UniProtKB/TrEMBL annotation:
Belongs to the NAD(P)-dependent epimerase/dehydratase family. Dihydroflavonol-4-reductase subfamily. This is Aldehyde reductase. GO terms for molecular function: oxidoreductase activity, acting on the CH-OH group of donors, NAD or NADP as acceptor. Signal peptide: none annotated. Keywords: Oxidoreductase. Transmembrane segments: none annotated. Residues 4-239 form the NAD-dependent epimerase/dehydratase domain. It holds the Pfam family Epimerase.
Amino acid sequence: MTKVFLTGASGFIAKHILRELLEKGYDVRASVRSEKRKAELEGLFPDATLEFAFLDLNEDAGWVDAMQGCDVLMHTASPFPMSEPKDPQELIKPAVQGTLRAMNAAKAAGIKRVILTSSCAAIYKQSDKPKMAPSDETYWTSPDDPSVGAYEASKTLAEKAAWDFVAENPEIALTTINPGAVFGPAMDDRFGTSLELVEQLMTGKIPMAPPINMVAVDVRDVAHMHVAAIDMEATKGERFAAASGTHRFLELGQMLKTWDDTLKTPKSEAPAWLLRIMSLFSADAKAIAPNIGRNLAVSGAKAEKTFGFSFIPVKDAIIASAESVQRQ
């Protein structure tokens, strides 16, 4: 039986991957950072036989031993903040070094198959591409471009590090899955940054929508792609955008409003000039401002063709998020 080593197993995406792996009959060794996170997963999957490893992205200890006996590395662990950090290296360093730490451990343990969770953020900001042109997997975000935030740079540099690693170690077959903003149902009450955004849209915490668009996907599709890629020859050596559609923030709010007209979703977009002024004083506005006048759309056509499925519509994904938020 194929055994999968799943890093960051208590994350929003990883929990859905773990469920899919177990449903497909894979053996799983899950890495977590604490006994609390282990108990969280045991509570979600009480009937599963799970192995655990306690690891830290920033520490070498235990990685090689933890991967012994595994056939596949599924690396999902990476920091994902709600706001821009003062020092970009707070995100970049653990993302890049953590990816290389996992890849080196996989090599030492004899693992030949790696599935890496990257992001559309590693795709949609290539500096020499026209700002309003959509992107696909042939594009790479330019990490040194002034418009690129710390998270976008961290995902780009971490993914590049992984591809550079397998170029030097061709016995390892790498696939990267590059999701947009990930919505959909939460499996418990500890959900990620994307669902926090939905909560803000629902409750009036975003009174005026930022005048930008966002590429989005349902977490269930992201999990499916990770697991299906394990044995698909056509996915080896390839990157795949997990992208159902691209919508403006105001549209996302309108989707929620049609589902529940009592929600305090934004009624209009903030003027671009106002957001640029706010960026002088607000870290959140400063992170958003460089995206004004830029199309962040990424095509998911390659994934649909290769995996043979259709993405769950964004509206369904965001409503599933809202239902999860309301259950809390």
